[in-house]
Specification:
Elements lengths: L1 H22 L11 E5 L8 E4 L5 E4 L7 H10 L4 E7 L4 H4 L2 H7 L1 E7 L7 H12 L3 E3 L5 E2 L7 E6 L13 E6 L2 E5 L5 H7 L8 E3 L11 H7 L3 E4 L12 H9 L3 E4 H4 L2 E5 L4 E3 L20 E7 L4 E6 L5 E2 L4 E4 L4 E4 L4 E2 L4 E6 L9 E5 L11 E4 L5 E5 L1
Parallel strand pairs: 3-4, 4-5, 5-6, 10-11, 11-12, 12-13, 22-23
Antiparallel strand pairs: 1-2, 1-14, 2-3, 7-8, 8-9, 9-10, 14-15, 16-17, 17-22, 18-21, 19-20, 19-24, 24-25
Helix pairs in contact: 2-4, 4-5
Length: 394
């Protein structure tokens, strides 16, 4: 009799356990509220709107100055009457230009800036407006947690106001809601990515650095992030050839889905913290100007001083590189410097100078005594003897 009772009890407990297993949900929303991340189509530039689960808003960059009206109109379409935070990742015109219109049109609670000093009229105008409107302003430090929404983790995983280059001064943000995260990299280059891979940078969605340029989004970085989706924010038929083939290959190598603003327009991700969706169609390559694979040569642009007219390149590889047939291009003015028949040894740097103080000396080449670089912003491209873009600085 006792054996029969124990057997019946065992069956009952087993059935109860099975019932509990069946009723357990696989995933539950964090709070029942959704977060939206809008990658606004501003052409060749960046602008990202975050709408938090508790209705807070953050705008990260605003595209070029001419895109300001587009950004303001889009914010109003989304019912945004106030921005709790605005972030200027770095002072390049294709990131902060559109923020002028935003500052003039919408109430802003707090402004986060890279702090990078740059002599441009656009940056001066932006900082003047922030001061005149008495907007709370700060420069985040690496590792700083931003008090945006209690249900989110928002961390500046990289920031460096003393960086020698605008792009490498980019504020890199990681925004996490439950199991879903977004890594927003500004124009941070491969040298910054090498620092970031030492940290926890795995993310669900990655905004590819520098509009899909091969100066960012290295394979090592992609393998560390392991994004399920990669967003390319770039303009159709842009003069830089973005996105570059290496970036596409690197994203596909880690089995990421690709989305591009030039093709899909504004891209919106919606998440409840457990899963996410987007209505955007996957990227197919329409609107990309470069189908030719760019070179992976080991000579790259490492700095650009528009005021003093000095551009520095470095051979970061293990072998000497002949610069015969290579070119340095000022994109804004379409002006070209043709390198002489010289060889750049491994680890060696070479400065190309222009303007009144230009000179020829050891480690320095003179381009011209005329002013070449536009102080308001002028991209530099390094092109090898095959005509391939091997490095770029905006």
């Amino acid at each position: 009799m006792k054996k029969l009772i124990f057997s019946l009890l065992a069956v009952v407990f087993l059935l109860i356990g099975c019932t509990f297993d069946i009723q357990q949900p696989e995933q539950q929303p964090i709070s029942g509220h959704e977060m939206k991340v809008h990658f606004i189509d501003v052409g060749q530039g960046d602008s990202i709107l975050i709408q938090s689960p508790n209705g807070k808003t953050m705008l990260i960059d605003g595209g070029i100055k001419g895109a300001g009206k587009t950004v303001v109109a889009y914010l109003r379409e989304q019912g945004v009457k106030r921005l709790d935070y605005v972030v200027a990742t770095h002072p390049d015109a294709d990131h902060i230009g559109g923020l002028i219109a935003v500052l003039n049109s919408i109430s802003i609670g707090h402004f986060l800036d890279s702090g990078k000093v740059h002599t441009s009229q656009t940056l001066e105008e932006m900082l003047t407006l922030i001061s005149d409107k008495n907007i709370s302003y700060s420069v985040p430090e690496k590792g700083e947690v931003i008090d945006f929404d209690k249900e989110l983790s928002v961390e500046a995983i990289y920031a460096d106001e003393d960086a020698s280059d605008n792009n490498d001064a980019s504020i890199v943000l990681k925004i996490t809601y439950g199991e879903v995260s977004f890594l927003l990299t500004g124009d941070a280059g491969i040298n910054i990515e090498k620092q970031l891979v030492k940290e926890n940078i795995k993310a669900t969605v990655l905004k590819a650095g520098h509009h899909g340029s091969n100066t960012s989004s290295s394979l090592e970085f992609m393998q560390a992030v392991r994004p399920e989706a990669v967003v390319l924010s770039y303009g159709q038929d842009n003069k830089y050839g973005h996105p570059h083939a290496e970036v596409i290959d690197n994203a596909l190598a880690v089995q990421s889905k690709l989305y591009g603003t030039a093709e899909a327009g504004t891209i919106v991700f919606t998440t409840d913290g457990a899963s996410y969706n987007t209505t955007a169609e996957e990227w197919t390559g329409i609107g990309a100007t470069s189908s030719i694979r760019t070179s992976k040569a080991n000579v790259e642009l490492i700095s650009k001083d528009l005021v003093n007219e000095v551009v520095v390149i470095q051979n970061t590889g293990n072998e000497p590189v002949s610069l015969q047939g290579w070119k340095l291009v000022s994109v804004e003015g379409n002006q070209v410097f043709n390198f002489p028949n010289i060889t750049l040894q491994q680890n060696a740097k070479l400065s190309i100078t222009s303007g009144p103080d230009a000179k020829d000396s050891k480690g320095t080449l003179k381009w011209t005594s005329k002013q070449i670089w536009a102080n308001s912003g002028d991209a530099a491209q390094l092109i090898n003897a095959k005509g391939e873009i091997v490095s770029e600085l905006e």
